[in-house]
Amino acid sequence: GFFGQYGGAYVAETLIRNLEELYGEYERIKDEEDFREEISQLLKNFVGRPTPISALHRITAELGGAKIYLKREDLTHTGAHKINNALAQAVLAKRMGKTRIVAETGAGQHGVAVATACSLLGMTCVVYMGAVDAERQAPNVQRMKLLGAELHLVHSGQKTLKDAISEAIRDWITNVEDTHYLLGSAVGPHPFPNMVRDFQSVIGEEAREQILEAEGRLPDYVIACVGGGSNSIGMFNAFLDDADVKLVGVQAAGEGLESGKHASPLLKGTHGIIQGSLTYMLQDEDGQILETHSIAPGLDYPGAGPQHSYLKDTGRVEYTSVNDREALMAFEELCRKEGILPALESSHAVAYALKLVSQLPKDALVLVNLSGRGDKDLSQAIAALEQL
Ligand SMILES: Cc1ncc(COP(=O)(O)O)c(/C=N/[C@H](C(=O)O)[C@@H](O)C(C)C)c1O
Fold this sequence. Notes:
By secondary structure, the chain is an alpha/beta fold. It contains 16 helices and 14 strands.
């Protein structure tokens, strides 16, 4: 469970047994024909895959540079890539004999995806969410409740994702007999980074085929936003061996990388252990996890998925960042000129693409992963745009 030195499972003894059982079951089940068939049927007939790739027109014409395609994970059922992982892990858990799912959520998209999977598969669903996040992602709180999830608001710590994850893990340790912890991103102890990547890799597999079909060649750049790192690794995975395809991970610079109010562990972090995994993280000199900031709740996380830390060190992926303001501007551009309402998280990837294309020749090709839709962000975005 390592990517170079990164990853592993640095957790309490009590958790090791759960993780070993999970890894064993995953390895046993993941290649079983009927498991794969069940997943692909659900992805097709319930999630609505494959999601399309949409070429931008007005923005591309205005910028006069490279052609941009968006991989439309906003068009999945529930409105973000999170459903790809939530469904697959819920099916796996059910096959392991679990009847109860516990999960954390920040932006609420993962929480909604888990509640959706549990409603469909007839499993009990408990979601932990920071009180601050519940406030700023209210539409997703309502959706989780309607889908039958039992929502626990977390009032400890910074009251965002990190605190929700700790509560969810505590619940899992207590109820391991009947409960699976459905981790929402490519972070945490082994086997989660591998499993979540595998379940999200459908994004890049589809997109690689679609771009070859549409353009007859591979893209010059593939760009995705990086919070915990699941939509990005899910997109990048299919292109890792295509040496000519440049991969760019975009982190949240918040109010600026030098402001101390950001969420860019891959740019400003150091080696440490966070939620059981050795990776780049934002910590003070005593190893205390630092507070983070981003206008996008889904990027507001102090750790990076361990595979991203490895890909940063090897140079296979370039990590960069975009601040709140740039993300908001990109959000508005897509709304006003391409008829798409993107999630604030996804807007970070679009913002970087818009900066990049003006420096590229007309015949260059850029593929951006649009990880989700902005329905959850409406009031936040409107308020923030009024401040611009
Ligand atoms: C639309 C959308 N785009 C990107 C992200 C960032 O998560 P990754 O793809 O795992 O880097 C997110 C992350 N959302 C999670 C959530 O909904 O709970 C996040 O807050 C946590 C699972 C980390 C998202 O909702």
